[in-house]
Design brief:
Blueprint: H1 2-22, H2 52-56, H3 71-90, H4 94-116, H5 121-137, H6 143-163, H7 170-183, H8 185-209, H9 221-246
Length: about 250
């Protein structure tokens, strides 16, 4: 069963790559076949096998020899691994389905933000509406917690954006509203804190190494996704560890 779950994750990850590439370009993600981004040649079935096709082709297009980004196998493997972790934690349950779906939204948002420094409204609006609807249909979270989870963290980041005069983009504000509709206010706020700490450490290391300057902009979306993903997977353990430190 674990193998099946992992393979399903790989296949869904392959589709996520299509979304990550096409959504910022406003191309259809459903009604056109996959193609090489270098020579535009339509890909065959063999070319679409997750991870394996990349390895056999040695990271190059079979038709033009153009390099294939490591993003493709990375997204596929990441999705497969997350599906495995979630399945081991929640098994076949409503929580597994809901949180697997949230994980897909986090992956797509993170890679688009990393590449283009934007988080498309079509992701955040769709994710937020889906989160509210799912809170009404299932019992993983109450509708009140979902609404508070959307409003409070988003309001917090919006206030920071106003104070810093645009230091944070509205895409990040909408992003945490989406996440909060799934995880609630408490987990999402802690996820923001974790993402900020990780971002500060990474930013400092990049400045010290000379790769970035103090004025360089680092996409916050992937950091927010990382923090909230950690809360999704190990939120109770993280909170327990925090209180043990203070005690």
């Amino acid at each position: 069963m674990l193998v099946i779950i992992f393979i399903c994750g790989l296949m869904i990850g392959s589709f996520l790559n299509v979304v990550i590439y096409r959504l910022p370009k406003e191309e259809s993600i459903i009604f056109s076949r996959s193609y090489c981004t270098s020579c535009q040649t339509e890909l065959g079935v063999v070319d679409l096998i997750p991870v394996i096709s990349f390895l056999f082709a040695r990271g190059k297009c079979r038709y033009c020899g153009g390099k294939i980004s490591y993003q493709y196998p990375l997204v596929e493997l990441l999705t497969g691994i997350l599906f495995l972790i979630l399945f081991q934690q929640y098994h076949f349950s409503i929580e597994f389905g809901v949180y697997a779906f949230l994980s897909l939204l986090l992956i797509v948002s993170s890679f688009i933000d990393f590449k283009h420094q934007i988080i498309p409204n079509r992701i955040t609006y769709f994710g937020f509406i889906s989160g509210i609807i799912l809170s009404l249909l299932f019992n993983h979270i109450t509708i009140i917690s979902a609404l508070l989870g959307a409003v409070i963290p988003a309001g917090f980041l919006f206030l920071i954006s106003v104070i810093t005069k645009g230091g944070l983009g509205m895409g990040d504000v909408k992003f945490v509203a989406m996440v909060g509709s799934y995880l609630g206010a408490g987990y999402t706020l802690i996820g923001i804190f974790i993402g900020s700490i990780v971002g500060s450490v990474i930013g400092l290391l990049l400045i010290i190494s000379g790769i970035k300057s103090r004025k360089s902009r680092i996409p916050f979306g992937p950091l927010l996704a990382l923090g909230n993903l950690l809360m999704l997977l190990k939120g109770a353990a993280i909170i327990d560890f925090y209180f043990k430190l203070w005690n």
